[in-house]
């Protein structure tokens, strides 16, 4: 036998021995994989995208090495503070470990929470928060649809990172998100009931999946769809994972949104924006959607396009959105909390029911908590006032007000969570929930009372009386008061001095003006009536105080001052302030016009709006000035004084 | 010389004819063209360009290295296996000339391909530059942090050696030093030297730290910056804290520039109030006119939360330290991206030249597949030598941590052999310019010179000398398996 042949046989024998030596190790390795939860939950061959499957197949056994290298590189770059490659590396690592939820969760968390805060501009921060969110929503969850952790982490990004106030730039996340959602869905009807909000989503839930289906189901839409295509709207365009936005958002919704805001709001209040250009194509686009003869077809097309973008880009199922609203109230999808609830609910669906193991119970509990926190936030500041800024979405106008429609839902969730905690034997947490529940209801009663919802307020006071008693079983004294006494009890303590009374009345008045600015005249009236009640409550024993030491100024004078304050210093957008000016009573406008004019001119200038059209001089000013000459004419150029607050 | 050139010319023609070379060239073209569409970086234009540069240059270096290995191993081995070598050696050409010619041919081919890829990558960067940026800061970051060549300068430190000596003398006077610190012949013993070094380290760390609510001034010197040049310089830092703030955000301030300096171009210093995540690198972008005409930059760190100016009770109190390697530096522009890019390509070429020599060496005594395997092992070890050395140091520093792991215990046992192997293998990873180029840091002529000297001259010469020696003694008619 030749030497070469001998070497070949020897090498072959060594290779065989090495393979045989590995065989007993396989059992140990398999056991370790199970112990360390490294086995995929999902079927590895189901719904694997082609690019991921190809990568896995191409690398074969070298996948582990490649993953190790990428993790080392990612870790090293992070140490060095270099984040430019983080998204790319996260994407590659996740592609190589597609059925390992912890990997997706870690990478998304790293981007949304760790990397984002190392940047110092709102655009960059939003980019990283969005990158983290997209990694989970667009790639991680579709590949691991039964991984509860991924839904929970996604909900937490919406709830805490974007919806909370922990991050310095949380307002820019809220604005960016509200912009995207408002562009797509439009603003919800103010104060809509659950039925109205749910009905608004019905056409979307029932919308067909493609333009062809829409044509087949509704023949009359064909001309409209053809016109849209001629205007450059590609109805068959789909969203790809690397796209920054859905093609339809650029070709359709960017144009459609200009038909509804903010110009319309500005036009409503009699203000033309000089920057609006006359655009023939825009006019054609407008005519497609404003022709009253085709209103139903236009609505069907709009619903189809909205549903398509919701499903493809945002991975939101309109039918599920309706279900979530059915359960938790008329959610405003421009708010991050609504999405936190949606994804937490989706996560809830994948937890095995009746499993009874600790993990499943903990997962369910976490979901409930998330939903509870989200509803609490909505109750406190979920009524969104939003004016989009298409050029810089993070500079849009965003203002959150309490949403009293969620009191009942939150009340029920409080009860559910408290019950869960008690059942788990977590008595301390259950007690804390009870205490929180009582405080929440007390505050809710005040809010409802001020809002004029007396029956509702009374219902919750009765609930407190019946359910939160002293240790010996007697009802608590404070809950035995009448509703009026209960609400004014706090104010009685607060209205101990002239200054505190001044603040309380002025705050109530300011809230009333804000409601008028938003167009809610009935709420304005209720708030004003509440301000009057506080005023009267304080003044009832001071009418004989002739020295003016403890008396408040006359009610109407305070009202005028608070309007001036709201216009000059309030946080509202110029369009709302212009609307407020239009709706405010004439005598009050006459009273303050000369005070606030300089401030209003400056405000209009900032927004490139004609001040004389937005804030026209009230009628009869000449006569008013003649009857009420100013004492100090030098002060005309001064901004409105801050009186009363 | 003409014989060497003739062999080299033949090698280039052969390289272009070989299918494997064509495959690599096609892959190179496809990768450079396709990367901008595949790699989006972090969504910023700066990130996109950085990712493209890192991956395209990395892919170019790897592909050309593989091509070099295949060409250098295949050419000599194939001529041996196909007996064409008999014709060559029967001509009036020395065997060393034959090998050097082969090496030269591969090196020239590498240079041509690298130049082609370099032009393609540069054209792509020029194109990417014209695409949409995120915001103005993103645009400035691309110009001043990526497409540039910045030198790094660290703060000047006082003479800690003299201070440590003074401290040692004080301790000696106070009789607080152990007897073993003194050498019998006078001066400090090994123990004494250790104590002195420790004092010096402590002084250095104190200097690079700032106490709670304190202020520390650092001076950066010898910044050769054209005072008439507009632009930005960058203060890069990573703050370590003794007590974590509740939200992990350190609120502090940097006051930059010295308006009292002769010829100062600023009337008052720049202020940057910060809210930074601790233990992460951050960058303060500073107008370049903060540098004084004498090339110094005064930087004052204020460990105070300016939101509560004067109200110290509200401030979070923590010591802040910048004592880690590179935790505090100023980066300033000293050259153009183009020149930096050219130097980077030349450094990659130096690596390829050495790899070609290793390939020729391997094929001088091994068959094609074995020579390829050997070269691949040398190449992989060479590019990861930095990581491997770090891992070995980690193992040696803390062997008990790996007791339960059989593989790592084996690695500890094999450490001496691994260390020797790493010493023999060329340190290519020490001459990797891509990271610095992508960060807009200067790839200096001095560094390139060292790469050319060690990789391109010394190690290449050693490898080629060994190859020539082996090949001269080799029996060419012997059949190799």
Task: Note down, in words, how this protein is organized.
The complex is a heterodimer of chains A (645) and B (481). Chain A is an all-alpha fold and 645 residues long. Chain A is built from 29 helices and two strands. In chain A, helix 5 packs antiparallel against helix 6, helix 7 packs antiparallel against helix 17 (336-350) and helix 20 (427-450) packs antiparallel against helix 21. Chain B is an alpha+beta fold. Helices cover 55% and strands 13% of the residues of chain B. Chain B has helices spanning 2-17, 19-38, 45-81, 84-89, 95-129, 136-146, 160-173, 190-207, 337-363, 368-383, 385-397, 406-413, 415-424, 434-438, 445-473, and strands at 149-153, 209-210, 215-220, 232-238, 240-241, 249-256, 270-277, 281-287, 297-302, 320-321, 328-335. A four-stranded antiparallel sheet of chain B has the order 1-11-4-8. In chain B, strands 3-9-6-7 form a four-stranded antiparallel sheet, with no helix packed on it. In chain B, helix 5 runs antiparallel to helix 9. The longest helix of chain B is centred in the N-terminal third of the chain and has 37 residues, at 45-81. The mean pLDDT of chain B is 88. Chain A binds chain B through residues 4, 7, 72, 80-88, 114, 117-118, 120-121, 123-124, 127-128, 130-131, 166, 168, 242, 244, and chain B through 39-44, 46-47, 50-51, 54, 134-135, 137-138, 236, 238, 247, 249, 275-277, 280-282, 387, 439, 481.
């Amino acid at each position: 036998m030749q030497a070469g042949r001998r070497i070949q046989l020897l090498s072959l024998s060594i290779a065989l021995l090495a393979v045989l030596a590995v065989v007993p190790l396989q059992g140990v390795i398999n056991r370790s994989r199970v112990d360390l939860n490294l086995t995929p939950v999902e079927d590895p061959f189901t719904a694997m995208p082609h690019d991921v499957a190809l990568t896995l197949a191409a690398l074969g056994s070298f996948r582990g090495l490649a993953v190790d290298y990428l993790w080392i590189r990612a870790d090293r770059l992070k140490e060095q503070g270099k984040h430019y490659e983080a998204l790319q590396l996260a994407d590659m690592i996740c592609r190589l470990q597609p059925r390992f939820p912890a990997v997706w969760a870690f990478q998304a968390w790293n981007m949304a929470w760790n990397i984002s805060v190392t940047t110092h501009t709102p655009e960059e921060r939003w980019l990283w928060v969005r990158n983290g969110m997209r990694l989970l929503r667009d790639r991680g969850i579709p590949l691991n649809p039964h991984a509860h952790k991924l839904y929970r982490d996604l909900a937490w990004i919406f709830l805490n990172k974007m919806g909370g106030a922990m991050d310095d730039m949380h307002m820019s996340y809220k604005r960016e998100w509200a912009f995207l959602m408002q562009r797509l869905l439009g603003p919800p009807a103010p104060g809509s009931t659950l039925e109205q909000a749910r009905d608004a989503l019905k056409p979307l839930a029932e919308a067909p999946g493609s333009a062809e289906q829409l044509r087949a189901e509704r023949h009359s839409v064909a001309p409209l769809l053809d016109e849209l295509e001629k205007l450059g709207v590609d109805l068959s365009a789909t969203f790809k994972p690397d796209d920054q936005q859905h093609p339809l958002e650029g070709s359709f919704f960017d144009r459609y949104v200009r038909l509804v805001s903010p110009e319309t709001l500005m036009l409503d209040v009699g203000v033309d924006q000089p920057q609006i250009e006359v655009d023939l194509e825009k006019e054609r686009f407008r005519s497609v959607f404003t022709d009253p003869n085709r209103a139903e077809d236009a609505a069907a097309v709009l619903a189809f396009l909205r549903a398509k973008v919701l499903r493809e880009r945002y991975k939101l199922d309109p039918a599920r959105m309706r279900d979530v609203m059915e359960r938790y109230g008329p959610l405003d999808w421009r708010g991050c909390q609504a999405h936190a609830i949606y994804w937490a609910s989706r996560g809830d669906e994948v937890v095995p029911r009746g499993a009874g193991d600790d993990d499943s119970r903990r997962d369910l509990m976490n979901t409930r908590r998330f939903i509870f926190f989200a509803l609490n936030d909505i109750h406190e500041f979920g009524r969104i006032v939003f004016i989009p800024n298409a050029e810089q979405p993070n500079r849009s106008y965003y203002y959150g007000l309490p949403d009293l429609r969620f009191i009942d839902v939150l009340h029920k969730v409080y009860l559910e969570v408290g019950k869960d905690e008690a059942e788990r034997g977590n008595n301390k947490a259950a007690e804390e929930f009870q205490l929180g529940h009582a405080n929440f209801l007390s505050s809710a009663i005040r809010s409802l009372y001020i809002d004029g919802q007396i029956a509702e307020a009374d219902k919750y006071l009765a609930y407190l009386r019946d359910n939160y008693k002293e240790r010996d079983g007697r009802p608590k004294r404070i809950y035995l008061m009448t509703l009026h006494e209960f609400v004014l009890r706090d104010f009685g303590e607060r209205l101990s001095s002239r200054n505190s009374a001044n603040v309380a009345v002025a705050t109530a008045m300011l809230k009333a003006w804000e409601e008028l600015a938003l167009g809610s005249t009935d709420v304005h009236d209720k708030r004003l009536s509440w301000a009057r009640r506080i005023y009267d409550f304080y003044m009832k024993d001071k009418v004989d105080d002739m020295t003016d030491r403890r008396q408040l100024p006359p009610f109407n004078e305070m009202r005028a001052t608070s309007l001036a304050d709201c216009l000059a210093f309030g946080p509202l957008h110029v369009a709302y302030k212009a609307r407020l000016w239009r709706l405010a009573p004439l005598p009050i406008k006459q009273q303050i016009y000369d005070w606030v004019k300089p401030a209003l001119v400056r405000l209009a200038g900032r927004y490139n709006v004609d001040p004389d059209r937005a804030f026209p001089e009230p009628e009869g000013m000449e006569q008013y000035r003649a009857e009420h000459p100013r004492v100090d004419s030098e002060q005309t150029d001064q901004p409105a004084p801050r009186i009363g607050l | 010389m003409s014989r060497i050139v003739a062999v080299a010319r033949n090698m280039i023609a052969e390289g272009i004819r070989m299918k494997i070379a064509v495959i690599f060239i096609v892959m190179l073209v496809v990768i450079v063209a396709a990367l901008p569409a595949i790699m989006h970086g972090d969504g910023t234009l700066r990130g996109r360009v950085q990712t493209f540069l890192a991956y395209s240059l990395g892919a170019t270096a790897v592909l050309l290295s593989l091509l070099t290995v295949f060409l250098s191993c295949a050419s000599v081995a194939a001529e041996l296996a196909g007996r064409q070598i008999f014709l060559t050696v029967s001509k009036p050409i020395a065997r060393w000339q034959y090998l050097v010619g082969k090496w030269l041919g591969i090196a020239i081919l590498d240079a041509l391909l690298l130049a082609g890829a370099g032009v393609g990558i540069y054209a792509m960067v020029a194109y990417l530059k014209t695409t949409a940026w995120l915001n103005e800061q993103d645009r400035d970051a691309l110009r001043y942090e990526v497409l540039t060549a910045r030198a790094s300068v660290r703060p000047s430190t006082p003479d800690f050696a003299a201070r440590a000596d003074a401290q040692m003398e004080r301790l000696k006077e106070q009789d607080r030093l152990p007897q073993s610190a003194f050498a019998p012949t006078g001066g400090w013993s090994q123990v004494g030297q250790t104590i002195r070094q420790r004092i010096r380290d402590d002084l250095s760390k104190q200097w690079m730290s700032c106490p709670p609510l304190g202020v520390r001034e650092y001076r950066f010197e010898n910044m050769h910056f054209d005072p008439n040049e507009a632009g930005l310089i960058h203060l890069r830092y990573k703050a370590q804290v003794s007590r974590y703030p509740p939200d992990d955000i350190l609120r502090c301030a940097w006051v930059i520039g010295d308006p009292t300096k002769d010829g100062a171009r600023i009337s008052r210093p720049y202020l940057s109030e910060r809210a930074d995540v601790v233990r992460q690198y951050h960058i303060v972008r500073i107008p370049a006119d903060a540098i004084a005409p004498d090339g110094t930059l005064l930087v004052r760190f204020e460990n105070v939360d300016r939101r509560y100016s004067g109200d110290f009770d509200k401030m979070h109190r923590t010591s802040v330290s910048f004592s880690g390697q590179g935790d505090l530096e100023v980066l300033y522009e000293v050259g153009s991206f183009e020149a930096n890019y050219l130097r980077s390509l030349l450094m990659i070429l130096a690596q390829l030249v050495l790899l070609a020599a290793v390939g020729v060496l391997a094929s001088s005594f091994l068959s094609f597949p074995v020579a390829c395997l050997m070269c691949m092992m040398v190449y992989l070890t060479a590019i990861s030598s930095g990581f491997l050395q770090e891992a070995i140091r980690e193992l040696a520093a803390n062997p008990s941590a790996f007791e339960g792991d059989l593989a790592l215990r084996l690695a500890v046992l094999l450490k001496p052999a691994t260390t020797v192997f790493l010493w023999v293998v060329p340190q290519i990873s020490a001459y990797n310019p891509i990271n610095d180029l992508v960060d807009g840091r200067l790839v200096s002529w001095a560094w390139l010179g060292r790469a050319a000297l060690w990789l391109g001259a010394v190690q290449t010469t050693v490898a080629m000398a060994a190859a020539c020696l082996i090949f001269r003694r080799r029996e060419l008619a012997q059949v190799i398996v």
